[in-house]
Design goal:
- By secondary structure, the protein is of the alpha+beta class.
- It folds into two domains: about 1-190, 3-Layer(aba) Sandwich (Rossmann fold), CATH 3.40.50; about 205-365, Histone H3 K4-specific methyltransferase SET7/9 N-terminal domain (Single Sheet), CATH 2.20.110.
- It is built from four helices and 23 strands.
- The chain has helices spanning about 1-15, 70-85, 160-180, 180-190; strands spanning about 15-20, 35-40, 50-55, 60-70, 90-95, 100-115, 125-135, 140-155, 190-195, 210-215, 220-225, 230-240, 240-250, 255-260, 265-270, 280-285, 285-295, 300-305, 310-320, 325-330, 335-340, 345-355, 355-365.
- The N and C termini lie far apart (about 105 Å).
Length: about 375
């Protein structure tokens, strides 16, 4: 009983609070950057100061709450500011909704405890889990990263403050590493612009916007475009058109990866259809044109010429049931000279029209004589 009273008094004497969140010396950045960074003045996610409990006995019984006495939301943003400044940036605190992009901090978890049963040795320990996001004024996330750290102290009378400072210093140095990378710097340069939609009869349910490089006010270089319908394009641009290499995902689940010219599929590309069928080959004016391979979801496959999206010219069609056609095509139908080899081994050779044999000769495999 005397030991419990002693430990309880000891816990009170050693303090159950963190005066404020601060760091010790920060490391040098990997690469010194420059430029302005807008940040929100306060972090989100704190729960009113309480961050844990002081505990006694081998059963880890909580007796006193551990609290941060200062404005912890402001303290955290001061730490973020210091990490940015060490990395070479000029920091601007703002609540202006038009400021873009803006860096925000959210606390996922902060927790501190101590263990007094081994008194006078009293270990205090805690941890932080913080997420930073760089957001445009339209709500697009340009950059996001999580930071986790922990700190421990055996300081008899100031254990929580020491443990907190060690943990804060750890994640602050992690932030310096991240802020000094080209990834974060380039994210600051991304531009998101609202694009007017002229079709007033169409209801827009999602955000429309562009993230990427521009020239003379037009999309130029690398960028990502979000369409209100849910379609998304990632790739190269020229004169406000998809142009070069890029990928586009569609609302129905389809996806095209390949070459573009002035906003249209043009050149080599692969289209994966919602059904599971896949086309790889040449495109022109948004349609399959030229040599290509179409693998159907049911196992059939066509290799040959295409025109305006149809099998047209010469090609080979292999059905999953074993049938095979080699010959000419028109509007996706066997048309012209061709040879059909059936799964049973019989062969039909001659002229086909609109998918049907017209002037053909059918040959059957020789029968095997049984003795």
């Amino acid at each position: 009983m005397k030991r419990i009273v002693f430990i309880t008094l000891l816990t009170i004497l050693t303090g159950c609070s963190i005066s404020h969140l601060q760091h010790s010396g920060l490391k040098n950045p990997v690469q010194l950057q420059s430029g302005d960074v807008y940040i929100r003045p306060l972090a989100t996610g704190f729960t009113g100061g309480k961050v844990g409990n002081s505990r006694i006995s081998i059963f880890y019984i909580p007796i006193n709450p551990v609290r941060i006495k200062s404005n912890e939301a402001k303290d955290l943003m001061d730490v973020v500011t210091d990490a940015l400044m060490v990395s070479g940036y000029n920091v601007i605190e703002t609540n202006d909704p038009e400021a873009s992009p803006v860096l925000k901090a959210h606390v996922n978890e902060v927790k501190f405890n101590n263990y007094t049963w081994a008194a006078p040795i009293v270990p205090s320990f805690g941890k932080f889990d913080v997420t930073l996001t760089l957001e445009s004024k339209e709500g697009f996330i340009l950059w996001k990263k999580g930071f986790k750290s922990s700190g421990t102290s055996f300081n008899f009378f100031n254990g929580y403050n020491t443990a907190a400072t060690r943990a804060v210093t750890k994640f602050a140095n992690q932030m310096v590493d991240s802020f000094s990378t080209p990834n974060f710097y380039l994210s600051l340069k991304k531009e998101v612009s609202q694009i007017p939609h002229n079709n007033k009869s169409k209801k827009i349910n999602s955000k429309e916007g562009y993230i990427g490089e521009k020239k003379n006010g037009l999309k130029e270089g690398l960028g990502t475009y979000f369409h209100p319908s849910g379609t998304k394009y990632v790739g190269e641009w020229k004169d406000d058109y998809e142009h070069g290499q890029g990928s586009k995902t569609y609302v129905d689940g389809g996806e095209y990866v390949g070459e573009w010219m002035q906003g249209q599929k043009y050149g080599l590309g692969t289209y994966t259809y919602p059904s599971g069928s896949i086309y790889f080959g040449n495109w022109k004016d948004n349609k399959r044109n030229g040599q290509g391979t179409f693998a159907f979801a049911n196992g059939d496959k066509y290799v040959g010429d295409f025109k305006d999206g149809h099998r047209h010219g010469k090609g080979v069609y292999e059905a999953s049931n074993g049938d095979k056609y080699v010959g000419e095509w028109n509007q996706s139908k066997q048309h012209g000279q061709g040879t059909m080899t059936y799964a049973d081994g019989s062969v039909e050779k001659g002229t086909f029209a609109n998918g049907e044999p017209q002037n053909t000769k059918k040959l059957f495999p020789p029968k095997i004589l049984q003795h």
